[in-house]
């Protein structure tokens, strides 16, 4: 399997050649030259693997379809090392739980940092360590987080040999718990950078550094954001695991279609669902759930992709989705446009920076997108989140975080009789305690290891939204 850029100005590469990178040198995102195709017999075999051998072996089987430059025995060992009950709190790793009338929540937040990002980041940490060890390289990871990617990356990379992590986040925009998870880490290889701005400013800095090929090469810059293909690939696995659990509980076969609703900001999580669907997993609808930052909802309803400025990116009570420039969206648009790299390049390299939007409403490929790719979208507000948290707690005695509440609210708008709907959980409620208290009047349960985390000393550097300042900081830390 080889990988190409969405802008096709870069030669194709193997998995390990792109593993430690983020953007391709031409500024595009990597995708496989083709998606492996799974027929009914192969789906049934994977279902048996999951039910008999577990999540780690399912992960190995799926990753093997995309990775041919890591020996199979090594790849299996990495998967087994990663997906363990003692790390993720359940033998199923990503269990589902039923709410009502075919509506499910898939629990993805029982890992070390209580957010779905752990599902991929734990694997990424082990893959990085493996590849660095066998090549003798060092890696400086530069990332951007709106809340959960940062802590998931830092917990996955802390203490890893040959790795430093430089994580940017929007100053004052995360919850107190999210900040504490990151800023309380004192490991020598972890560096937190609070940027005066919004998440998109942080993301722009990461992209600017990744596009400076000389700097990227000199300081061995890599990324753990979902622009990294390996991270998105890891997320594909839990769509299969969720699907197999739903059809098993309902005594259905592998031809039954299942829908997924995904709280979405940067489009990485739901893009993994798109990949799973392209592989042949019988997904009916992929429903994008946004908060007040509704750029993606607007596109899927109108065909217009209009990036908001920092000043017009709302600060909400589902802050991990306070994003107005969805990095992974380019991957889907590339597929939607029949992999027309020139048109993709013109949209994302030319129109986005200069005009801030593009309009595909009259393009027949956009009009066919729903039928072919199954995307729908909806929007949720603070009022909706509070109401949904209350409803789920009252009716099902389950406490959900604000982002998952966005997902449940939108999922109910698109639920169809006879087609199960799975909402992907985003985080545990404790990460957003103030919103839970507002909705329910009670504090969410806090794992013992996080008691008093907000009171710990903080290790963080505040910086302006200036790529040169961030570059200088990286240079200073790499002098040793």
Report on the structure:
This protein has 480 residues and is α/β, with parallel strands linked by helices. Helices cover 46% and strands 14% of the residues. The protein contains 21 helices and 15 strands. Strands 3-4-14-9-10-13 form a six-stranded mixed beta sheet, sandwiched between helices. Helix 4 packs across helix 6 and helix 6 packs across helix 11. The two termini are 37 Å apart.
Descriptive terms for the model:
21 helices, Rossmann fold, 480 residues, alpha/beta, 2 domains
CATH architecture of the largest domain: 3-Layer(aba) Sandwich
The share of residues in helices is 40-55%
Strand content: 5-15%
Number of helices: 21
Task: Work out the count of structural domains.
Answer: 2
CATH topology of the largest domain: Rossmann fold
Reading side by side through the largest sheet, how are the strands ordered?
A: 3-4-14-9-10-13
Distance between the termini: 37 Å
CATH C-level category of the largest domain: Alpha Beta
Largest sheet: 6 strands, mixed
Gyration radius, rounded:
21 Å
- Global shape: globular
Flag low-confidence runs. Answer: none
Annotation, overall tally of beta strands = 15
């Amino acid at each position: 399997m080889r990988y190409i850029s969405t802008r096709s100005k870069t030669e194709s590469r193997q998995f390990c050649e792109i593993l430690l990178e983020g953007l391709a040198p031409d500024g595009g995102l990597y995708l496989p030259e083709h998606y492996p195709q799974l027929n009914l017999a192969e789906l049934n075999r994977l279902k048996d693997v999951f039910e008999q051998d577990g999540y780690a072996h399912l992960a190995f089987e799926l990753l093997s379809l995309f990775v041919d430059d890591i020996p199979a025995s090594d790849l299996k060992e990495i998967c087994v090392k990663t997906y363990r009950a003692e790390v993720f709190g359940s033998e199923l790793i990503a269990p589902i739980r039923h709410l009502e009338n075919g509506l499910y929540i898939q629990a993805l937040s029982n890992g070390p940092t209580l957010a779905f990002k752990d599902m991929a980041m734990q694997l990424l940490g082990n893959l990085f360590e493996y590849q660095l060890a066998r090549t003798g390289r060092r890696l400086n990871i530069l990332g951007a987080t709106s809340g959960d990617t940062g802590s998931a990356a830092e917990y996955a990379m802390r203490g890893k040999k040959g790795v430093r992590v430089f994580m940017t986040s929007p100053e004052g925009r995360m919850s107190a718990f999210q900040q504490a998870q990151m800023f309380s880490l004192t490991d020598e290889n972890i560096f937190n950078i609070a940027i005066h701005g919004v998440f998109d400013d942080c993301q722009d800095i990461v992209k600017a550094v990744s596009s400076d090929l000389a700097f990227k090469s000199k300081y061995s810059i890599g990324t753990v954001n979902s622009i990294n293909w390996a991270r998105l690939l890891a997320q594909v696995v839990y769509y299969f695991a969720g699907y197999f659990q739903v059809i098993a509980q309902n005594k259905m076969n592998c031809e039954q279609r299942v829908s997924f609703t995904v709280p979405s900001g940067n489009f990485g999580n739901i893009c993994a669902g798109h990949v799973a669907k392209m592989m042949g997993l019988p997904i009916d609808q992929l429903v994008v759930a946004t908060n007040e930052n509704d750029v993606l909802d607007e596109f899927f309803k109108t065909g217009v992709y209009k990036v908001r400025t920092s000043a017009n990116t709302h600060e909400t009570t589902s802050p991990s989705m306070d994003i107005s420039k969805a990095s992974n969206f380019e991957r889907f648009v590339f597929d939607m446009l029949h992999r027309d790299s020139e048109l993709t390049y013109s949209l994302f390299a030319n129109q986005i920076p200069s005009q801030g939007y593009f309009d595909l409403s009259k393009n027949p490929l956009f009009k066919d997108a729903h039928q072919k790719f199954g995307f729908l979208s909806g929007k949720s507000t603070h009022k909706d989140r509070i109401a949904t948290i209350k409803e789920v707690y009252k009716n099902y005695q389950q406490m959900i975080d604000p982002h998952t509440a966005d997902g449940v609210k939108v999922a109910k708008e698109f639920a169809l009789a006879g087609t199960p709907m799975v909402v992907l959980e985003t985080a545990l409620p404790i990460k957003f305690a103030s919103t839970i208290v507002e909705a329910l009047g009670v504090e969410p349960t806090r794992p013992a290891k996080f008691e008093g985390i907000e009171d710990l000393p903080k290790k963080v550097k505040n910086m302006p939204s200036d790529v040169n300042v961030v570059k200088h900081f990286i240079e200073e830390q790499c002098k040793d």
